[in-house]
Amino acid sequence: MKGLLYKDLQLILNKVSLIGRLLIIFVLLLVTIFCRESGTIFLSIIGPIGLASIPTSLLVADQENGWNRFVGIFPIPKKNIVLARYIFCISLILFISFITLILSIGTALIFQQFSLQIHILIAIIGLLIGIMYVVLLLPAVYAFGTFGSTIVNVLVLVLIMGVIYILQKTTWGLLFITWISNTNSFLLVIASCILIAVISIVSMIISTKVYSNTFK
């Protein structure tokens, strides 16, 4: 398992040069310094979502280095290979969410424009969205290759547009907003975590079956 996680980490490091990594750190600092709390809130959302597309990059890297040609003969259970990728992708999102949360808390303590609770809540929302996107993307990528990313992106876009339409144009939107306003934020986060955990388990089962059928 450690070897599989190291392989994925090395694939990502090979994709991003040292200059690229330093540039990312520089941009994070610039956004934090000049945009202050609004900037870190933006990073808390866009960071996890941006990294959520990592399964596609890993799939392309596997194809480029010939992993897919030899994986069928390796004495490694397919379940472990799939599990390692889930762990790696989700861990990466957790890592960037932790970094952006630290930046958010720092700017909240310094500038005090928004409450600390808002920063933490938005960081959790960004994290959950990122994980949800990953667990939707992985089965699609295993089943359809890079085209799976396009399928998920279209479905997510349609879903977002549908939700926005319902919130703006129907009475369901007002009822939903009222319900959200009257519901405990902590309970909403817990319920969301449970839902995503269930979806993640189903996603991994599907991915394992697809991957096992592809590389027998």
TrEMBL record:
Any Pfam family the entry gives: ABC2_membrane_5
Keywords for the protein's UniProt record, in alphabetical order: Membrane, Transmembrane, Transmembrane helix
Signal peptide boundaries: none
Entries under InterPro entries matching the protein: ABC2_memb-like (IPR025699)
PANTHER family, alphabetized: MEMBRANE PROTEIN (PTHR41309:SF2), MEMBRANE PROTEIN-RELATED (PTHR41309)
Keyword Acetylation: no
Protein name stated in the entry: ABC-2 transporter permease
TM region positions: 12-34, 40-61, 82-110, 116-136, 143-166, 186-206
Species: Lactobacillus melliventris
